[in-house]
UniProtKB/TrEMBL annotation:
Family: Belongs to the glutathione peroxidase family.
SUPFAM superfamilies xref list: Thioredoxin-like (SSF52833)
Keywords, sorted A to Z: Membrane, Oxidoreductase, Peroxidase, Transmembrane, Transmembrane helix
Active site, per annotation: C74
CDD domains named among the record's database cross-references: GSH_Peroxidase
Keyword Membrane carried by entry: yes
Example of a GO biological process term: response to oxidative stress
Residues spanning the membrane: 6-24
Pfam families reported in the protein's UniProt record: GSHPx
Protein name: Glutathione peroxidase
Organism domain of life: Eukaryota
Organism: Drosophila simulans
Length: 198
């Protein structure tokens, strides 16, 4: 009888310890994932560039920002690379910055690795499209916090999820997303909205 009491006591203690561990772990995870919900602007986020260096988006304070998830093997790639290059040439000196985030979530259409492989790909494609960051997920639990924030602030037509490569978010000089554009939106069609913010 005493043996059973000891076993029950032991199992009860293990259950309490395990339950406490799970509870506190979930609280930590929830608060870490919840940070993007409380952000006032993109300036509160730090991302990695294509070479793995931390970049605070506060660096772009006072600029108009276009955030784009890019891919190299997509049917939309050629037009978007050309038109993003055109936008950068036309508005870069007036204060537009284009932040490009390679993403392999849609049909595995961004196979290039970060770093030199990404730089070479863009150079070979004659795509002078702006700042290039490390490859990210834009949907799901592992989505970059910046993308969770952008999607929360500017939902799409059929929900907040990113539907495909080359979804674009326009951010004003205060770091607040003010518009979202579908993958099929030609970057030059965003020019009039950019001009209003410059």
């Amino acid at each position: 009888m005493a043996g059973r009491s000891i076993v029950h006591f032991f199992l009860g203690s293990v259950a309490i310890a395990l339950g406490s561990y799970i509870y506190f772990t979930m609280q930590i995870d929830m608060s870490a994932n919840g940070d993007y919900k409380n952000a006032a602007s993109i300036y509160e986020f730090t991302v990695k560039d294509t070479h793995g260096n931390d970049i605070s988006l506060e660096k772009y304070k006072g600029k108009v920002v276009l955030v784009v998830n890019i891919a190299s093997k997509c049917g939309l790639t050629k037009n978007n690379y050309q038109k993003l290059t055109d936008l950068k040439e036309k508005y870069g000196e007036r204060g537009l910055v284009i932040l490009n985030f390679p993403c392999n979530q849609f049909g595995s259409q961004m196979p290039e690795a970060d770093g030199e492989a990404m730089v070479c790909h863009l150079r070979d494609s004659k795509a002078d499209i702006g700042e290039v960051f490390a490859k990210v997920d834009v949907n799901g639990d592992n989505a970059a916090p910046l993308y969770k924030y952008l999607k929360a602030k500017q939902t799409g037509t059929l929900g907040s999820g990113i539907k495909w490569n080359f979804t674009k978010f326009l951010v004003n000089k205060e770091g607040v997303p003010i518009n979202r554009y579908a993958p099929t939106t030609d970057p030059m069609d965003i020019a009039k909205d950019i001009e209003k913010l410059l």
